[in-house]
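Read as chain and fold; for instance:
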Amino acid sequence: MSVTLAAFRPCVVIPCYNHGATMASVLARLQSFGLPCIIVDDGSEAATKQQLAQLTGVTLIPLATNQGKGEAVTTGLKAAQQAGFTHAIQLDADGQHCIEDVPRFLDEARAHPESLISGMPEYDDSVPKSRLYGRYITHVWVWIETLSLSLKDSMCGFRVYPLAATLAVIAEHPPGKRMDFDTEIMVRLYWAGTDSRFLRTRVVYPPDGVSHFDALGDNVRISWMHTRLFFGMLPRIPALLSRRRQSAHWAQVPERKGLAGMRLMLNIYQRLGRRAFNALLYPVVAWMWLTGSMQRKASQQWLARVRQQAERQQIALPEGLNSYRHFLRFGDAMLNKIAAWRGDIIWGRDIEFALGSREVLQPQAGQGKLILAAHLGDIEASRALAQVEAGLIINALVFTDHAQRFRQIIEEIAPQAGVNLLPVSHIGPETAMLLQDKLDAGEWVAIVGDRLAVNPQRGGERRVCWSPFMGNPAPFPQGPFILAAALRCPVILMMVLREQGKLRIHAEHFADPLLLPRATRQQALQEHIDHYARRLEFYALRSPLDWFNFYDFWQLPPEKESGC
């Protein structure tokens, strides 16, 4: 039943187990808000019972024996509903939550009375590292169990529950009774159609605080909870996917989710190491594979084209080509981006030159070069070239309005990185002038030749040339090749592929310089793009799982087109 604004009646529910010493302070901080308070004594020791008995102006519910945090919260929620309240603010008794944020939580609950309002913690240095790391693992599992990234933090105990919806879920599917409660009730509420909304809030761990988290027992319970939720998610997949399609796409929400996700990846990598990150990669990629129907279909169609073309050319393909492994390779490449930006790609151990490529990539004093690349393999690993060639600077031209986000995160991760991002929305004279200055300074420029950019100055027109690729004509942008001709510098084709457990840099001369004579300009442009398409196909057949264009590459979006 919908809760109207006039019917909004909140109270506070505090589970307490041997936190009598801090309870008076918590209540003092709550006093100015004038909220009724229900305290559930979860079988505390005699000292705490005595301290709680001295409190006035609260409803005290004693449990005879310790039942666990989840059971204490459930008891408090039931009591709140019986007393006529519509919403309950859950707070911990140890004072670690920023109680001063209660008005913000209430305002959000009034505006969205049918949603669960939850804190999203901002920790200081007092947080135990084991608790911090464990949260990342739970985040990943919750995203899998809901097939959604909308639940940003499922472990914070600072919440506003809509009582009717919450108790209905508890009655039908009783959640865990201890430290597994917070996560499970949020997931099950999501399954039942109750959205969660998140507010950032400061969380501290007092030096004299008492924690009742049982490292062995509670971790076992949490692991068993995730097992139950995972298998509970499977029959709900159609409904969850339908709900996800009906929701706004994350890219349409005006939040810095790209940065948050990249920071999360970085934190896992920095704190737990690559081995732990790789272990988490399998369930995350499984979730991506299950929920990304468009990308999964594009991957399967790509691999089908690869097999057909390899058969026509009588080429032996690598073993184990399937869509899931294709997604895994993409996930691995995302981590390589971070490793490359941080300077963690080590020559010999992680990356090496293919035969003859070192000579092609040899810098020449005072002369810049243009690297022509593609969304094939780990082109960001070109950052590692700076380890071999001291002082080498590579500027990567990025066709996206969101590239400023990536530039910001790179500056945070590796402020001295040897790859500089140059975000542009289209290629124009000002782009050529900027890059010419870079080349004249002896720097290099990298640009991809397989993605289209809309030129707003031409009303959305996409200038392309159609060229044979994997057995069918595909549209390739003219811009990178016209730019290369305008810069009149050596052009190198470079791909960085995963081969025999390492990244291997393949480099070859493409043009020196790339010429487009005025009399035969269109013919010359077509010939250069055809050459690029042939070499791209060669390297793609060599390492098919390194193809990272997860869409129908052979079709143009429904926009105005101008082609060769």
